[in-house]
Specification:
The chain is 42% helix and 18% strand. The chain is α/β, with parallel strands linked by helices and 339 residues long. The chain has 2 domains: 195 residues, Bordetella uptake gene, domain 1 (D-Maltodextrin-Binding Protein, domain 2); 116 residues, D-Maltodextrin-Binding Protein, domain 2. Helix 2 packs across helix 10. It is globular and about 65 Å long.
C-alpha cells in the first residue's frame, strides 16, 4: 500500500493557489484585445510556460524550441518554470493568459487523462486549452541503480517481494504517467512499495542516484544519459516495441505485463481561443524547430520519436491516448489523494 506522502496535493491548497494565480492573469486576458492575426504574429516576446522544474527533458525541449523560434521570428523567447501540483499550477496560469499565441506551455501527456484521476481539477482540458503541436513521443522506463540486485523485471519483482515495505519508486509527479505505471506494476505483481512523487524528473534522478529511492519510472530522454554512463540499469520500457537507442531493453509486454502499452508524449498547448491562423503559424514554427536537423538528432539521441505535428494531429492523439490511459487507470484502480 502506498503510504501518505507530505507532498500529496491538498484540494484546499490547490484551489487557493489556483485562485491566486488566476486573478492577475484573468484581468490581463479580459483587457487584452483579440486582434492577433497570422500576418502580424509574433509582434512581441514569446513566453513558454514549463510546469516543471528546470533540468529535466521537458525543460531541455522547451528551451531548444524557444531558441529555434527566436532565431526564426526575431523575437525573444522566455521559458518560465512554474512547478507544483503535478504541473497544474503552471497550466492553470497559462490557460488564463491572453489567447494571442504569444504564450504557450510545453508539458507532458498526464494532463490528458487527469480527469480520470482527479475528482476536482482547477481546469477543463477540453475548454481551457488549445492543442498546438505534439513535440515528441517517449516511453517510460523502470530504472534501478547499477548496484541493484536485479537485471530484469522478473528479478526485480522477486527482490521487492522478498522485502515487503523496504523498497520505493520515484515518479516525476503525483498522477503522472510514471505514477500510473508504478501503481500498475504494484497491483499486477502484488508488490509492497512506497511511491515517492517529485516535482519533475531531475529531483527524482538526484534521489535515485543518492540511494534515497530504490527505483524510478522516468522518461527515456532522462534515462539514456544515465544508462550510457553506466549509472543505472533499465529493466523495462512502456510501449509495444523496443527503443532504437536501447534495443537490448525489453518492454513490459515482452516480460508478461500488460497495461504498459501507452507511451507518454511531450506537447505544446496554448490558451483556448487563440485564432486558428495564429495557432497554425505557431504550430508550423514548432514543427520546423523539431524537424531541424540538429534538434531532431538530439531528440532521437534522447530516445524519443520526433513529431512536430499540426494541432489536428495532436487533438486526435489526445483523444486516442486519453482512452488508452483511462482504461489502464480504471483497470488498476489508481487513485490520487486530494483531501
Amino acid at each position: 500500500m502506498t503510504h501518505p506522502n507530505p507532498q500529496t496535493t491538498r484540494r484546499a491548497g490547490l484551489a487557493a493557489l489556483a485562485a491566486s494565480l488566476l486573478l492577475p492573469t484573468i484581468a490581463w486576458a479580459q483587457t487584452a484585445p483579440a486582434t492577433a492575426t497570422a500576418a502580424t504574429f509574433p509582434n512581441k516576446p514569446i513566453r513558454i510556460i514549463l510546469p516543471f522544474t528546470a533540468g529535466g527533458t521537458t525543460d531541455v525541449l522547451a528551451r531548444s524550441i524557444g531558441q529555434k523560434l527566436s532565431e526564426s521570428w526575431g523575437q525573444p523567447v522566455v521559458v518560465e518554470n512554474r512547478p507544483g501540483a503535478s504541473g497544474w499550477n503552471g497550466m492553470v496560469a497559462m490557460a488564463r493568459m491572453p489567447a494571442d499565441g504569444h504564450v504557450f506551455a510545453v508539458t507532458i501527456s498526464n494532463i490528458i487523462y487527469a480527469k480520470s484521476l482527479y475528482a476536482d481539477l482547477p481546469f477543463n482540458v477540453e475548454k481551457d486549452f488549445a492543442p498546438v503541436s505534439m513535440i515528441s513521443r517517449s516511453p517510460v522506463a523502470l530504472v534501478v541503480l547499477s548496484s541493484f540486485p536485479a537485471s530484469n523485471l522478473r528479478e526485480f519483482v522477486e527482490q521487492v517481494r522478498a522485502h515487503p515495505g523496504k523498497h520505493s519508486y520515484a515518479s516525476f509527479g503525483q498522477g503522472t504517467t510514471a505514477h500510473i505505471f508504478g501503481e500498475t506494476l504494484k497491483l499486477d505483481a502484488r508488490l509492497d512499495m512506497v511511491h515517492v512523487p517529485y516535482k519533475g524528473a531531475a529531483p527524482a534522478v538526484n534521489d535515485l542516484l543518492g540511494g534515497q529511492v530504490s527505483s524510478a519510472y522516468l522518461d527515456t530522454g532522462t534515462v539514456l544519459p544515465l544508462l550510457q554512463a553506466g549509472k543505472v540499469k533499465v529493466l523495462a520500457i512502456s510501449g509495444t516495441q523496443r527503443l532504437g537507442a536501447a534495443p537490448s531493453v525489453p518492454t513490459f509486454l515482452e516480460q508478461g505485463y500488460k497495461g504498459f502499452e501507452p507511451v507518454g508524449f511531450f506537447q505544446a498547448l496554448a490558451p483556448a481561443g487563440v485564432p486558428a491562423d495564429v495557432l497554425h503559424k505557431l504550430s508550423d514554427g514548432i514543427a520546423k524547430a523539431v524537424q531541424s536537423p540538429d534538434l531532431k538528432a538530439r531528440i532521437v539521441e534522447m530516445g524519443q520519436d520526433p513529431a512536430g505535428s499540426t494541432p489536428e494531429v495532436l487533438a486526435a492523439a489526445i483523444r486516442s491516448d486519453a482512452a488508452l490511459f483511462d482504461r489502464t487507470i480504471k483497470t488498476s484502480n489508481i487513485k490520487v489523494e486530494q483531501n
